[in-house]
Design a protein that fits this description.
3 helices; 7-stranded antiparallel β-sheet; alpha+beta; globular; 23% helix; Immunoglobulin-like
Length: 122
Amino acid sequence: MSKPPMPKTKPVSMSFTLWDKNVSTTTNSAGISEVLKRLRTGRPAEDHKCASMGTALQVVFANGETLRVGLHPGHDTNGYEFAVAFHLFTLPRAGFVESLKAAGLDATKLPMDWLEQTGDPP
């Protein structure tokens, strides 16, 4: 899969969860659309069997459809990895973090690297 599959319907809410606990939620539709626009720029990444980090975005769309995006800190400070529909993608970190903040989500809880999240080297 060369591009992350994303619904084209208008988003109505986005929640950021960490280990299944809601960290923050936004209903800023324009901001959520910008986050989704960033995610659509993701490039395929090789599946390397790292365990889930328990960090996710869940988007609810106007038609009732939901999208879960599993977030992974990646293995360098330049990018994040994310999973959609069992496919792994990567994108630059800086623009993504800014889009989350602009949408109104608390990005301060987003793990910056594998060691910060797990306490173990990758």
